Amino acid sequence: MDLSSLARPQALRGGSTGALGAHAARRRSVQLLRPRRPTFRCSVEAAKQQVQGTLAAEAEAARKECFGVFCTTYDLEADEKTKSWKKLVNVSVSGAAGMISNHLLFKLASGEVFGQDQPIALKLLGSERSLQALEGVAMELEDSLYPLLREVSIGIDPYVIFEDADWALLIGAKPRGPGVERAALLDINGQIFAEQGKALNAVASRNVKVIVVGNPCNTNALICLKNAPNLPAKNFHALTRLDENRAKCQLALKAGVFYDKISNMTIWGNHSTTQVPDFLNAKINGRPVKEVIKDTKWLEEDFTITVQKRGGVLIQKWGRSSAASTAVSIVDAMRSLVTPTPEGDWFSTGVYTTGNPYGIAEDIVFSMPCRSKGRW
Ligand code: LMR
Questions:
Q1: CATH number for position 137
Q2: Ligand 1: which of 217, 322, 329, 348 to mutate, most ligand atoms within 8 Å of CB?
Q3: For residue 273, how far is its CA from the centre of ligand 1 (angstroms)?
């Protein structure tokens, strides 16, 4: 399948690729958000004035993509408290009015991921349907008075919201219901990720790090990166950190230890029921799992199935998919990418396979053990 051909028709997209396309898209999105009343005049002079007025209004509207208190201008370098801070980091989040984001955004704004000297701009992508809810989210962010949160903008056009993104957290997608497998969402969600890949390709920072969360996240990550040929494929990740965390929790439970004693946990493959949580290479208190947990039947059968099906069981219980633990795992995944991995340990993330040492098929997105030197 040609993954780059998966896209909505031009008329439905935010705009075409390229800087001009992004510009046009920005204007269109502003119009979408702020419909203008038609006015009627009859002379050339009046028409000229109307065009000028329209341009001025658009420029004004474009400036107002920022939200509320976040439209205030400030100079970090002029302020004693903030002048040693790092340069602002732009984090774009899709599905920003959803449950996962509702946990995640506040963690990001608090400095949990990037530290207390890293100011942050949140660019929140919603849909026409969720725009009002998105304003509610932005209002709560305003009211939280986070010192590091310097800019918030909201919108429904990925070509606007992904502009200059240093990080793109792609959460927005149709979730599955009880009894549905994640792969069944591909038809509808694949379109979203093709469109967002194109938008990232056109307007994001050339070194943007992308974490795909919307299911089926491995395939969506592949679709996204195939639609973003000008961005490094190695910067695209499918979130399997949630599975890693779930696997660590199960091992801790069985071994009767706290979960910080579990290390070297690999999730191989997909964020799906075909994933393999690797108990053979994982460690408990620095020892191989099999030396600590002697119940081989539990390891080979129950453990694997429990991790594979944890998301589905949660949906049965909650009536909706996991949100808080997913947000936590996104934070964990981001932190693992930006901080040096402790000696001898690793973390799991779905990455683009090219020249991997494990003999895994090339040209797919597959979860495997990874290490970071702290710089991407
Ligand atoms: C999860 O694993 O909790 C999420 O992927 C949601 C789902 O569909 O299971």
A1: 3.40.50.720
A2: 322
A3: 10
pLDDT in tens, 152-167: 999 999 999 999 999 9
3-class state of residue 360 by DSSP: coil
Residues in Cβ contact with 50 at an 8 Å cutoff, skipping those fewer than 6 apart? 39, 41
Q: Whose CA is nearest to atom 6 of ligand 1?
A: 321
* Percent of the chain that is helix, strand, coil (3-state, to 5): 45, 15, 40
Does 41 fall in a domain? no
CA pair distance 248, 279, nearest whole angstrom = 10
- Give the containing element (helix H, strand E) for 211: strand 209-212
Domains held by the chain: number: 2
Ligand 1 touching residue 241 (CB < 6 A): no
Other C-beta atoms lying within 10 Å of the C-beta of residue 123: 26
Its pTM stands at: 0.85
Question: If you measure from the C-alpha of residue 312 to the centroid of ligand 1, how many angstroms do you get, rounded to a whole number?
Answer: 7
Give the span between the Cα atoms of 223 and 4, in whole angstroms.
7
Residues labelled catalytic: 271
